[in-house]
Specification:
Structural class: mainly alpha
Strand content: under 5%
Number of helices: 10
Distance between the termini: 61 Å
Oligomer: single chain
Helix content: over 70%
CATH class: Mainly Alpha
Number of domains: 1
C-alpha cells in the first residue's frame, strides 16, 4: 500500500477519477465477474473503504466508468471530425473510421466493452448509461449523415445500421488478426455510405 499516502493527498475529483480508471482496468483484465470493491481498490492502490466514499457501490462505479469511457471515445471521434476539415462526407467518414484505429480499436477497450455489455441485462444503472452512450453516438452519426445528405430518406434508420456496421468492423479489428485492414474497413464504409445515398 505504498501508493496510499500519495493518493490520500489527492483532490477528491482525482481520487474519484483514479477509482474510475482502476475500474476500467479491472474490467479489461478480469471481466464483469472479476469486478468488486476489493479488486477496484487494490488496482487503485487504496483501502477498500474508499470506493464507497465516492460511489454507492460497485454498480455505480461501473456505470460511471462506462460513462467516462464513452466520453473518451466521443472526444476522440469529434477530434477526428474536426481534423477532417469542412467537407461533410469527409467529416462523416472521419467520425466512422476513427473507430478502426487506436485508441478506439484496442483489445483492452474491447474487453472493457464486453464487460459493460454483459451487465446491461442485469444492472439497471449500467443499462441506462449504455443507452445514453449509444444514443449520443447515434445522434452524432445522424447529424453528420444529414449534414452530408440533407434529404436522406430515413437518417435514424441509417444511423442505426451504420452503428451496427461500425461495431462489427471495430470488433474484428480490436480482436486482432481481422481478415481485413483498417484501410479496407474505411473503403467498405465509404462504399456502404454511397449505396445508402443512392
Amino acid at each position: 500500500m505504498s501508493q496510499q499516502p500519495a493518493f490520500t493527498r489527492a483532490a477528491p475529483n482525482e481520487r474519484r477519477q483514479s477509482l474510475i480508471e482502476a475500474c476500467a482496468r479491472v474490467l479489461a483484465q478480469k471481466g464483469a465477474a472479476g469486478v468488486s470493491v476489493r479488486t477496484i481498490c487494490a488496482e487503485a492502490g487504496v483501502s477498500a473503504g474508499l470506493l464507497r466514499h465516492y460511489f454507492s457501490g460497485v454498480s455505480e462505479a461501473i456505470a460511471e466508468t462506462y460513462r467516462w469511457t464513452g466520453n473518451r471515445i466521443d472526444a476522440a471521434l469529434l477530434q477526428a471530425v474536426e481534423e477532417a476539415g469542412s467537407d461533410p462526407r469527409a467529416r462523416l467518414l472521419a467520425y466512422v473510421t476513427a473507430s478502426f484505429r487506436p485508441p478506439i480499436a484496442s483489445p483492452d477497450l474491447l474487453a472493457t466493452f464486453v464487460a459493460f455489455w454483459s451487465l446491461t441485462r442485469s444492472d439497471a444503472q449500467v443499462a441506462a448509461v449504455h443507452d445514453e452512450v449509444y444514443g449520443q453516438f447515434r445522434a452524432e452519426l445522424q447529424e453528420l449523415l444529414l449534414a452530408w445528405k440533407p434529404c436522406l430518406a430515413d437518417p435514424h434508420l441509417a444511423a442505426i445500421a451504420l452503428t451496427a456496421l461500425i461495431d462489427g468492423l471495430w470488433l474484428e479489428l480490436s480482436l486482432g488478426q481481422a481478415p481485413f485492414s483498417a484501410a479496407e474497413a474505411d473503403a467498405f464504409v465509404g462504399k456502404w455510405l454511397d449505396s445508402v445515398a443512392g
